[in-house]
Design brief:
The chain is α/β, with parallel strands linked by helices. It has two domains: 54-123, membrane protein fhac (Ubiquitin-like (UB roll)), CATH 3.10.20.310; 126-273, 3-Layer(aba) Sandwich (Rossmann fold), CATH 3.40.50. 36% of the residues lie in helices and 24% in strands. It has five helices and twelve strands. The strands form two sheets. It has a nine-stranded mixed sheet, covered by helices on one side. A three-stranded mixed sheet has the order 1-3-2. It starts with a helix and ends with a strand.
């Protein structure tokens, strides 16, 4: 009992000491918190003041990459001019507005303080046309249907059409499954033809028709006979077809051909003669 009584005062001192340290720590933390709040308020007021200052008024806007769009369209869509404040400009919002344009794939917006705004536009490159119920639309290299093709615009592109397949979404990049696979195979064949082969260039592709059984059928500009490509392995089929077409052109035998089945056998092509 005596030992317990002797320990009691020592324990109370320890409790008091720890309580004092806790109060001092609370005061220090509160002081730091107040300091940062005051600092944030001062910073906010300073930024607000600078955002209204003439020192950061945009004096020059440089726009690069326009082909189908114009610089005037870019400025109007972005909602900026030489009276805008560069510091107050929401770069993310400008980028979002510009990328909503059907022809624009990607935009880089950069501020060069104190007065220069740089906008670099990457437009979509049309590689084909797709025949929809509402008319012809451009397709980019990713198979995204993005804008109507209207005269007097350039319509000299291969046309992709479909049999009993409804392409009712002009945002094909979000679609998955068999329909997208057919589109990728057709675009892959067009991409191969775009590499500059003189026997089968992209310019000589009139149409690629997609059948509901998954088969692709090609029609040429100069000889619109059906050329059955089947499904899959388009690189090998393109190379086989180039060899056959080269022989037909060289021997002047194309007028006697009714159809060509590239998918006939793995290493053989069937040329069907007119009756």
């Amino acid at each position: 009992m005596k030992n317990l009584k002797q320990l009691r005062p020592s324990s109370q001192k320890d409790v008091g000491r720890f309580a004092g340290m806790g109060r001092r720590l609370l005061v220090v933390v509160s002081a730091f918190f107040l300091f940062f709040v005051v600092l944030a308020v001062i910073g906010s007021l300073l930024c607000s003041s600078l955002a209204k200052s003439d020192f950061f008024l945009i004096s020059e806007i440089r726009i690069n990459g326009c082909r189908m769009t114009t610089k005037r369209q870019i400025l109007d869509l972005a909602g900026i001019d030489v009276h805008s404040n560069l510091l107050a400009l929401d770069v993310g919002e400008v980028k979002k507005k510009l990328e909503s344009h059907e022809w624009i794939e990607r935009v880089v917006v950069r501020r060069d303080f104190p007065n220069l705004l740089l906008i670099t536009v990457r437009e979509r490159i049309q590689v084909a046309l797709i025949n929809l119920a509402e008319g012809l639309y451009y397709l980019d290299r990713n198979g995204i249907c993005f804008a109507p093709a209207l005269p007097p615009e350039d319509l000299d592109f291969p046309v992709i059409s479909a049999d009993n397949i409804i392409f009712n979404d002009c945002n094909g990049s979000k679609e998955t499954g068999r329909k997208n696979q057919l589109m990728r195979e057709a675009l892959g064949f067009i991409r191969l033809a775009g590499r500059g082969n003189t026997v089968l260039p992209r310019q000589n592709i009139s149409e690629i028709h997609l059948y509901d059984n998954g088969d692709l059928v090609l029609f040429l500009m100069d000889h619109p006979v059906p050329i059955y490509l089947g499904q899959g392995n388009m690189t090998a089929k393109y190379n086989k077809l180039v060899r056959v077409l080269s022989w037909l052109y060289r021997k002047d035998r194309f007028n006697s051909i009714a159809a060509i089945k590239v998918d006939y056998m793995e290493k053989k092509v069937l040329a069907m003669l007119r009756k």
